[in-house]
Design a protein that fits this description.
The protein is of the alpha+beta class. The protein is about 40% helix and about 20% strand. Helix 1 crosses helix 13, helix 7 packs antiparallel against helix 9 and helix 11 packs antiparallel against helix 12.
């Protein structure tokens, strides 16, 4: 008995309809990237493990797909892995091609990435990211552009989202005033799980990572802050200036608050329509972030973050190009797809690529129609001839399944008269046209 075909867990096939919907997402995002002056590039699916390891933290390293060696090196440890994200390969690209690049360098990538994660709703082992980054400038106008692109993309997709912003310098400052500056990674990894596991579990994890009850109390005080952006920044400023229970001061934390204040002033001036808020619990688990961090969530559909990113100052330094600051954000295409599907936001008719179907009545009429079909295609109309001479019902059913809006049925009588019939299958309207009246035909079926 033949084995039933299947695909690996955490991966998916995409039908013609689904691909049309996914391409709608990709083309929308790509059009926004283009209007902000970003250019597209691609990097290989696999990278050297030396490029990937150590860039995502211990938890990220565990999720790397390693590729076994073959041939003479089969017995040696893996040397390559599938890319975990698009940012680290981008940093590698920048360093490798630095003499060919004009800075600031603005690029986007729309490619799949792989993570050896446990598959669940909204979480896949193979998924697409739509990354946009600018590297070579420390100006927060770059952060503003990311906010503007989020605003524009989700306005075009008609999805209400919440954009959360924090700053890793603030989190570093939080570790400093808690008295554990060396545990900033432990703290950020723990509080990054706040939405998933709750405050009590986060406090337990911080205790397991070696923080004292007094330090955890300082962190909890900050996580509990509420109010407007200005009120949160003012309260944090007081704590960073020595107002916490520890009495410690953090210059790094104060610098992060200055950056947040400047960014939110830009956002206010730019007239962003998307809801944007400061979230002091937002950590983003990746170790390479050093400044602003972003996360986007759909307001009307229960799913994890659908975008995320931030500022990184040291990523290219790992590859030998120091002092090259960058900032970027990644649009999670697969989760965005799930949101649009769940909210019924995909435009109608995306699955239909064919505009006009010519029924196949007999070989002679088909031969007569071929020059017309060629001219229509040259005019930008997607059309096809049903390949077999068969019952009209079967050809009607084909048009219906493919959501083809127009059908043309012609035989020897129409060929002799030099005209064709075209029917709008939605409205029922039917018209006859001279076969050489291309403009009138195009006007009717567009």
């Amino acid at each position: 008995m033949a084995q039933k075909p299947s695909i690996p867990k955490g991966t998916r096939d995409f039908s013609q309809q689904e691909m049309a919907q996914r391409n709608y997402i990709f083309s929308t995002i790509r059009s926004v990237f283009d209007t902000f002056g970003y250019s597209q590039l691609e990097t290989p699916a696999m990278e050297n493990l030396s490029t990937l390891l150590g860039k995502y933290g211990d938890e990220g390293d565990k999720l790397l797909f390693r590729i076994q060696n073959s041939g003479e090196k089969a017995e040696l440890p893996p040397e390559k892995g599938l890319r975990y994200d698009l940012t680290v390969p981008f940093a590698r690209f920048v360093v490798q091609h630095q003499n060919e690049i004009s800075f600031p360098f603005k690029r986007y990538q729309i490619q799949p990435v792989w993570r050896a994660d446990r598959p669940q709703k909204g979480r896949y082992r193979e998924f697409y990211q739509c990354d946009v980054d600018v590297i070579g400038s420390k100006s927060q106008l770059c952060e503003l552009e990311l906010v503007q692109m989020v605003d524009r993309v989700f306005s075009l997709l008609d999805v209400n989202v919440l954009l959360k912003i924090n700053n890793r310098k603030v989190l570093t400052g939080l570790a400093e005033i808690a008295g554990f500056p060396e545990k900033v990674v432990d703290i950020t990894v723990a509080i990054d799980k706040l939405d998933k596991i709750g405050l009590d579990a986060v406090k337990e994890e911080m205790a397991e990572r070696g923080l004292t009850p007094e330090a955890i109390a300082v962190i909890e005080q900050i996580l509990a802050l509420s109010g407007s952006t200005a009120e949160k920044i003012a309260a944090m400023r007081g704590l960073m200036q020595g107002g916490s229970a520890s009495g410690l001061v953090s210059e790094t934390g104060l610098k992060g608050l200055d950056e947040l204040e400047e960014l939110f002033s830009f956002i206010a001036a730019a007239g962003i329509r998307t809801e944007v808020e400061i979230d002091l619990s937002l950590a983003r688990g990746l170790n390479y972030y050093t400044g602003a961090i972003f996360e986007v969530k759909a307001k009307d559909f229960p799913i994890g973050s659908i975008c995320g990113g931030g500022r990184y100052d040291n990523l290219t330094g790992i590859f030998g190009l120091p002092d090259m600051s960058g900032v970027g954000i990644s649009f999670g295409a697969d989760r965005i797809y799930d949101v649009l599907q769940g909210l019924g936001k995909f435009p109608e008719g995306l699955g239909s690529t064919t505009r006009l179907l010519f029924a196949n009545m007999d070989a002679e009429t088909v031969a007569w129609l071929l020059p017309l079909v060629t001219k229509l295609r040259q005019g930008g109309i997607s059309c096809e001839i049903y390949p077999d001479t068969t019952k009209l019902k079967k050809q009607f059913d084909y048009a219906d399944r493919k959501q083809i809006p127009f059908l043309s049925i012609n035989g020897s009588t129409e060929a002799a008269a030099g005209q064709i019939n075209i029917k709008n299958l939605s409205s029922g309207e039917q018209k006859a046209f001279a076969v050489n009246d291309i403009e009138a035909i195009l006007a009717f079926i567009r």
